[in-house]
Amino acid sequence: MVEEDIYSLPEIKVDRVNSLDRFRGFAIALMLMFGAAKMFTDTDFFVQLSTHDLSLSWQLITGYGFYDIIAPLFVFASGLAFHYSTKSSCLKIGSVKTRRKNLVHSLKILGVGSLLLFDFSNPIGIVFFAFMILSILLIAFSLFKPKFKNITKKIFHYGLISLGICIVVVNIIEVILALANTSTYTGSWGALTSIGIGMLIATFIVDKEISIKCVFTYAFIIVYFCLCLILPEKAFLFTHGGIIGALGYAILFILADVVLSLKDNKVLLLIFTIPLFISSAFIYDVILPSKETVTITYVLFSFVFCYTVYLIFDLLELPGVNFKFPVLTILGKNSLTAYCLHFALTFTYGICINALISYLPMKGVIQIILYALGMILYAILMALLLRYLSEKKLVVRI
Question: Residue 395, SS3?
């Protein structure tokens, strides 16, 4: 699980796509900075930018807070990476082997996601946390005992696949129990597991003809729209919408692949995307956006926001331009490592910055500026750390 530099979530071994690296790095930077801002208690300014609570958040549109865009950006970036990965892999090993490889990879992403739940409110979360501690011990063991490295890699390979299957089964059972009005737990899910579901579904259509992918995507959207109308809210009232809400993120994941497949055909791209932009406005009158339950409106507006931001990064990509220390690029190249480190470092960093600035004899605008600079510094420090870990070949790889 610890190897050389990677193009994580998912792995890609092709020429770098700088706009994708920077776009994904942008998503990671927002996650880091505004995650740390949750710990700023000496000012209320950042509360509205770092909460999913709609009564407190600054809303881009009614029902859609600023902080709600970060997870979709991450999912959409992963879908873009998946497109390039599969395209390259199909050319090298064929579509059948690529599909098998992607299937295994999606289960391992689900497995990693299960290790990062940090839910101590129920036995299931505690069990997965125990597996995470065991994983850390195995990594440490392999570092100090290199001769056991191959054995450790096999343990992680089959262990993550098994955990990926388990987390899916557990959440299906939890949804069934919730629908049956039986007491159940609601915390065994996360953003990374949603990405795993998106990858799992995309695996079976990513190498198909573009016409098939377009029809499938529209059909998937219609089915999910019906699910949002038919299923009671309790089916979605899990972290990140649970496994049902993950179908919404899967749509976003697949949309990323489709728009890249249509990139060279501007007419078809417009024919495909314009109805999505328009329908999001019409559906808005039927179902409000909701991050908590991942409604179809939330998914479609997320697509509008994410695709617009990606196009900006793509348009700003200038040939021959190299930065000596490209923060966003480094964060994007090592996104899975940054995501894992985020859980251990972000809140700690936020608490330290809050303690430092709150004791300074400055309030108001100057204090807010200092907090903002502290957030930017965090992204830079994380990039420095990731570059160092990459040079030492200690980044996360699955």
Answer: strand
> Alpha-carbon distance 6 to 222, whole Å?
36
Query: Could you tell me which residues come within 8 angstroms of residue 204 by beta carbon, excluding any fewer than 6 positions away?
Result: 99
Identify whether the C-beta of residue 163 lies closer than 8 Å to the C-beta of residue 127: no
CA-CA distance, 163 to 170, in Å (whole number)? 10
* pTM to 2 decimal places: 0.92
d(CA 274, CA 94): 33
CB burial of 108-124 (b: ≥16 within 10 Å; e: otherwise) equals bbbbbbbbbbebeeeeb
pLDDT digits (tens, 9 = 90+) for 123-132: 888 999 999 9
Contacting residues for 373 by C-beta, under 8 A, at least 6 apart: none
Question: Please, which contacts does 213-221 make with residues 24 or more away whose CB atoms are closer than 8 Å?
Answer: 213/254, 213/257, 213/258, 213/261, 214/258, 214/272, 216/254, 217/251, 217/254, 217/255, 217/258, 220/247, 220/250, 220/251, 220/254, 221/251, 221/276, 221/296, 221/299, 221/300
- Helix H or strand E encompassing 323: none
Q: What is the C-alpha separation between 292 and 294, in angstroms, rounded?
A: 6
* Rounded (5°) CA angle 334-338-343: 160
Chain segment 259-308, per-residue pLDDT in tens = 999 999 999 999 999 999 999 989 998 999 999 999 999 999 999 999 99
Is-contact 78 199, C-beta < 8 A?
A: yes
